[in-house]
Amino acid sequence: MCSVCSAKFTYGNPPSLDRQDNELPRTKDNCLPVCVSYNIAHANRDPKIASLHIKMRQYAIKHNLPMTLSEERIYKLLRECFTGGLAAVFHRENSASRTHINELTYYRQSIKVISQDNDNVTTHVFALDGNSLYPSSYSSVKNENIPYTNHRMYMAGRSKFYSEKPYVIKNCIDQRKEIFVAKIKGYFPKSEYNNLLALPPIFRNIEIENREDVIAIAVFEKNAAYEPFVRTMMNLRIQSILAGSSKEKFYKLVINASCSYDTLNTEKFGKIKMLDKADTFIAQHHPNHIGTRRISANTFAVQIKPKTATCFTSIYSGVFNLDNAKYWYLNYIYNFMYKCLDRKRFHFVLADTDSIYIAIAGNSAKDCHQQFESIVTDKQFYDQHVYQYLTDPNKDIYDYKKILDFGIENEGYEFTSLGPKCYSMIVHKWSNERQQYEFKPKITSKAIEALESLHIDWHAIWKAIYEAGIKFACESKQCK
Known about the structure:
By secondary structure, this protein is α+β, with helices and mostly antiparallel strands. Among the domains are: 15-62, no CATH class; 270-304, no CATH class. The chain has 13 helices and 18 strands.
């Protein structure tokens, strides 16, 4: 047993000897058994600083907080998990009364995927945005709509072990007690293909049959330690909004910058230097050289891979935060939309990291604010769960800014997207001055601002948006 912290010695916590008087040799009377971590923390430091380090480590172990990785194989496995965001465009043009709902269908006999329009015609475009999606993802707040892991999305604590043994991996997956990252070779049954085609970038919520050996697994402790922090900061942010204080932006920055903002560190990004012809020739022979681009006759942009990378967020905290965000995103689609809405009357238009645009074939007699009301197939399920995912318009700002919530970002009749992050939409917003709805274009190009003062039909509006979008994309090098 450790003479300092009274911890038991195990294979994971081996003993070490600590000299009481560093001037004397290691004799039986001058040494006491201690944990290896104590010797590392103590070294030649001040006893009070060493004591603080030891207590911080004990606190991290008690609450399963992230700690430094000691296994290189776990690091390499986690680095493979970073796949970026979900930005993708599925349908470029979506116009009310003109665009039909599109379906992708896989046919086993011909082994083909057929894209075809059905008879339902778009009535409006509906955009949802995750309310503080990343803070919600790492908060581990309990939500009944999370069907697994005790209705929480846990964050990873310190690593427990890494294994490549099939029976160990199978036990971890079957028991579902631990949180882990596993690398497998899976097989998607053809019966599930049609459930995957509507949202191609994401394959989730289906049973995957392992036809080949599981390659590796990394198991972690789980924690919900961030919940008090997120709840406190969200409440302070709401209070600032109610008071009209600029601190609202500060609290928003704090909760969004507290986890994962720097996880995608500079490891995979190079440094660019502007060099002349002679220095470029030398730089191209450097082993860390990535690429060169000519700027002028004697000026070149040379990209060099850096030797070091900086990251203040533990890598597995970043992996689980990003994965939890994608999971909650999909949980809304698979466990709410697909269960109570008519899938033949909507299609996905654009998907982004924390938002999604949906074209809906609703009731043509209603305006664009009807949301999903006209395509509900299970009214009881819809009424029971709709305001557990979306904001209730009859409640206050505390419901509007609640954790694990989707807010209405935009509603309109026209949506055109040339590519990810490059889209335009005619937004139908209420004007307090005129006490009526106004059509306002949502696009960053100055060319589209002229549409606000024009009185033209919908076809002319869409044409102008399309031309402005092409011009904007070309100017911003989206088309190059």
